[in-house]
Specification:
2 copies of one chain form a homodimer. By secondary structure, chain A is an alpha/beta fold. Chain A is built from 12 helices and 9 strands. Chain A has helices spanning 14-25, 39-47, 58-61, 77-87, 102-108, 155-167, 177-201, 204-207, 212-218, 225-234, 236-258, 262-277; strands at 4-10, 29-35, 53-55, 67-70, 93-96, 117-118, 120-123, 144-148, 171-174. In chain A, helix 6 (155-167) links the parallel strand 8 and strand 9 (171-174). The interface between A and B is large, with 81 and 80 residues.
């Protein structure tokens, strides 16, 4: 891929910082401008090789950008994109890294003007950690990035973003924002909710005895609460539907335990094991 | 510790095989007799260094044993211990590795005769894997083993088992069978149930998109269904109580999402994160 001349990253935390590091390490952009509100974080981003230059001004930061990646929390993405669109060059492409897509794409669809376009991305990477000091240049290697084009998306923009993420080591697939949100309700948002209910409902005296199984099952509950609240809020329908399916299965399990119906319980546990085993360890 | 002369292990799967390997590698017993029903499994146990000799006969296998560790599934432990007690030398000590303790200890309490005693153990080790080929001599290193003495337990037996497990690299703590089952309902059995409900309720098309978070949260659901069914059945009260607490917290989370109450949701997620972060990654 022909390298991007100027890449701007708004929000240089774990994801934004990793995009910057990967782009610099892999020479996917000539300049990487890190934009953020906290000078200390921007200094860390430069020191860690996540940006070639930094600024606290969105206006200055995006002034020459060909591609802008918005890495603000999910509930600020729409406003961030609109502000970027006011100041970026005519014809620039804006994307994001938000974990929900339907609301964001719906609010931004075809309303940016000056031939500035938005096309949603969701890199399925990251972790329960956060902050630019956790950023890694190989975070996207072999990972998947979902692109969420709509009917009004230009093919050339899909191609540009595919090449961009590929240049950071990721593979891309495209799907509608609605389908994206259904899937991630099931594979990410619901597990987070359930892990939080497990971690939140244990007593202090029991907690001392938690071992590997509890640690695995609740790991994602370490995620930043401030980041997760807007994820649930912007994918409410999807999460509530996935939760209803989960509760139906949990009720079947509970009923089998209450009735001491070993055959039904074994059948349910075996079906769950089959799904889990299909994906390896 | 003075090594045990003859250690007998009934059931040489993951746990029994690991006990045998650890005892042989650490010279904690002069002879390690592996007892099982399937000759192929016994041959594998000898080949893998999990037993110095093997037999399909309980009567022959325990005839000279000073300590017998019963590693059969939870719903067979009581019968296994009673059978071992018929044939083992007078004065021998029997223990087990069952994940639930209240039912087992209640049924076995002080009824074995001929000065043969049972004292329950639960090594908090193992994994979603199973089978003697997964056995490891270091499985218990740094791990915890719960001993569940009752009022009729002899102090000398607690001391003997403490030394035995310590000689395999583990540390021991003692508590009542009732307290044990409450704790493990919360830290192990409930997480297994919840992981099974997650893994069991996902659609095939969503499953293809599962990534690290889903894999962590559902990992324990790979456990053998035949082993887990009797765990739930013998700790029904504990599991149902832990499940009720979980569902209460999950309902609070759902209500906050339904009402779009970001403050309440953040507060609940933060409380969960605090519990999870207390235990490291």
């Amino acid at each position: 891929m022909k390298p991007i001349d100027t890449l701007a990253i708004l929000g240089v935390g774990l994801l934004g910082g990793s995009i910057g590091r990967a782009a610099i390490e892999r020479k996917a952009a000539r300049k990487v401008v890190g934009i953020g509100r906290r000078p200390a974080m921007l200094a860390a981003a430069e020191r860690l090789g996540a940006a070639t230059e930094t600024t606290t001004s969105i206006e200055m930061g995006v002034a020459e950008a060909d591609l802008i990646v918005v890495c603000t929390p999910v509930d600020r993405i729409v406003d961030s994109v609109r502000e970027v669109a006011r100041f970026c060059p005519e014809g620039a492409l804006i994307t994001d890294v938000g974990s929900t897509k339907r609301e964001i794409v719906r609010q931004l669809g075809g309303k940016l003007g000056r031939n500035v376009r938005f096309l949603g991305s969701h890199p399925v990477a990251g972790s329960e950690k956060s902050g630019v000091d956790q950023a890694r240049g190989d975070l996207f290697e072999g990972q998947r990035v979902i692109l969420t084009p709509t009917r009004s998306t230009k093919k050339a923009d899909v191609e540009l973003l595919k090449r961009f993420w590929k240049s950071l080591g990721a593979e891309t697939i495209a799907m509608s924002p609605e389908r994206h949100d259904q899937i991630f309700a099931a594979v990410s948002h619901l597990p987070h909710l359930v892990a939080a209910a497990l971690a939140g409902s244990i007593s202090a005296s029991d907690l001392k005895h938690a071992a590997a199984g509890w640690l695995d099952t609740t790991r994602v509950a370490s995620g930043d609460a401030e980041l997760w609240t807007p994820i649930f809020s912007t994918n409410r329908d999807g999460v509530l539907k996935a939760l209803a399916r989960f509760e139906k299965t949990l009720t079947l399990l509970r009923d089998a335990i209450e009735r001491d119906d070993g055959k039904a319980l074994t059948r349910l546990l075996t079906a769950a094991k089959r799904n889990r085993d299909a994906l390896g360890s």
